[in-house]
Design brief:
The protein is mainly α. The protein is built from one helix and no strands.
Length: 65
């Protein structure tokens, strides 16, 4: 203020940059989360569903023997 430059514009630009950096960080974190979620699905949910299907088919297969 003493030098004639209002601090509001500089502070506004700094705040905007900080918001953009935070948003960029969230987007990168979300991009890193997708493969982790796919790994959980592949390693846990798929075998679980296969076991459920096998359990449902077991009585029919055992009666055929």
């Amino acid at each position: 203020e003493r030098l004639g430059a209002p601090p509001a514009e500089a502070l506004s630009a700094l705040a905007r940059d900080a918001r953009e950096a935070r948003a960029r960080g969230r987007a990168e974190a979300a991009a890193r989360a997708a493969p982790k979620i796919q790994l959980v699905v592949a390693l846990l949910l798929v075998p679980s569903v296969m076991l459920l299907v096998a359990a449902a088919l077991a009585p029919a297969l055992l009666d055929a023997v």
